[in-house]
């Protein structure tokens, strides 16, 4: 049942190219329009939206953080991301023209469900992104976009995360198109890039041997830090979360620019720092900033593990370990950069002798608040 893999998690990591392809399947109409699933909202309802809130927990929250960058860039509507467990307690300002996007793999997370109920009471429209057909969250939402990741058994979310990203991209593109911010051919160009990601990911997954070796090396580290900027920031948070939940190690993700405001004091001789480097194409400035952050931590003794686009040879000089990933447009890059971090956490946990699929104290769906 694990398809020849030692753990469900490894099987699910390997299934990611297919999961992305399945989530994209049939989404583009002949007219180049994005087709969503059960959308019980009219195009006019979606045109009237003037603010978006994304609510979710854990890994799904990290998908929401990535979505904010994509949605604001493409749709030009303010988009906030909030932990579902915090959302309703601060009395958010919601009305008919607010779209609340609830992201949940299981569709049963109580925190997310309560956030969506609160949003509905305030007359906001709710759109769910969910991997589980007929679960509570999509049932209670005005619209649903299902991720076609297939069942996820391991407690640690992997393929659900990547398919949530795809769903968020599709929603962003759909909104941009019906609101006239992007033309059909512009949308189709992004979809084409999305359609190339399963192949790129297969290539990347074929090169994980070095990450496995690195995992054996890092298994005794007392802390692992992760840094990133822009969409690399949620990827850093996701890498740290995976390591905490599976390897029971101290790990933290930071926005690379925040380092100098405090966390850099944590860096000591040999502290492993995983650095997610943006693509040099398009937003070169951001990439250069991350490269200076890498130099800063290295100057203080950090051991740097650098995830960078292949061909970005200049970063090699600052990397104790370089993990190249296939070139992907900036906003879509988390579909690549997250994957080595999943493998790293899984292999470190295994090397430490933990039950990778069933980490202590955790449940696959968290049905209490
Ligand atoms: O089913 P959900 O997406 O609502 O679950 C949210 C979190 O509980 C979940 O992502 C959790 O953080 C994972 N175990 C992380 O790997």
UniProtKB/TrEMBL annotation:
Active site positions: 364 (for fru-6p isomerization activity)
Compartments reported by the entry: Cytoplasm
Span of domain SIS: 42-181, 214-359
A GO term from the CC aspect: cytosol
Signal peptide: none
Keywords noted in UniProt: Aminotransferase, Cytoplasm, Glutamine amidotransferase, Repeat, Transferase
Top-level taxon of origin: Bacteria
GO biological process, one term: protein N-linked glycosylation
GO molecular function list: carbohydrate derivative binding; glutamine-fructose-6-phosphate transaminase (isomerizing) activity
Physiological role: Catalyzes the first step in hexosamine metabolism, converting fructose-6P into glucosamine-6P using glutamine as a nitrogen source.
Subunit structure, interactors included: Homodimer.
Name of this chain's protein: Glutamine--fructose-6-phosphate aminotransferase [isomerizing]
Origin organism lineage: Bacteria, Bacillati, Actinomycetota, Actinomycetes, Micromonosporales
Complete-protein stretch covered: 259 to 627 of 627
């Amino acid at each position: 049942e694990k398809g020849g893999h030692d753990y469900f998690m490894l099987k699910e990591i390997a299934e990611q190219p297919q999961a992305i392809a399945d989530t994209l399947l049939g989404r583009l109409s002949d007219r180049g329009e994005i087709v969503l699933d059960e959308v019980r909202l009219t195009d006019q309802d979606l045109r009237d939206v003037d603010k978006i809130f994304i609510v979710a927990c854990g890994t799904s929250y990290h998908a929401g953080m990535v979505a904010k960058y994509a949605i604001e860039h493409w749709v030009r509507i303010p988009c906030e991301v909030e932990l579902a467990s915090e959302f309703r307690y601060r009395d958010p300002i919601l009305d008919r023209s607010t779209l609340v996007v609830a992201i949940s793999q299981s569709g049963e997370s109580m925190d997310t469900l309560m956030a969506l109920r609160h949003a509905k009471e305030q007359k906001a429209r709710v759109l769910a992104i969910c991997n589980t057909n007929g679960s509570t969250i999509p049932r209670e939402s005005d619209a649903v976009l299902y991720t076609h990741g297939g069942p996820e058994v391991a407690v640690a979310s992997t393929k659900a995360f990547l398919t949530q990203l795809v769903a968020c991209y599709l929603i962003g593109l759909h909104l941009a198109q019906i609101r006239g911010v992007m033309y059909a051919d512009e949308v189709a160009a992004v979809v084409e890039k999305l359609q190339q990601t399963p192949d790129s990911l297969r290539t990347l997954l074929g090169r994980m041997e070095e990450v496995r070796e690195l995992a054996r090396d890092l298994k005794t580290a007392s802390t692992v830090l992760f840094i990133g900027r822009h969409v690399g920031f949620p990827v850093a948070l996701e890498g740290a979360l995976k390591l905490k939940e599976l390897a029971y190690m101290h790990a933290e993700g930071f926005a690379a620019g925040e380092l100098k405001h405090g966390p850099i004091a944590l860096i000591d001789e040999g502290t492993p720092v995983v650095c997610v480097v943006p693509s040099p194409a398009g937003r070169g400035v951001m990439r250069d900033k991350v490269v200076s952050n890498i130099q800063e931590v290295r100057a203080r003794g950090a051991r740097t593990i650098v995830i960078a686009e292949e061909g970005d040879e200049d970063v090699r000089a600052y990397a104790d370990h370089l993990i190249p990933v296939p070139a992907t447009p900036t906003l879509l890059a988390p579909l690549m950069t997250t994957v080595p971090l999943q493998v790293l956490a899984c292999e470190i946990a295994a090397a430490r002798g933990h039950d990778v699929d069933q980490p202590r104290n955790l449940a696959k769906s968290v049905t209490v608040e």
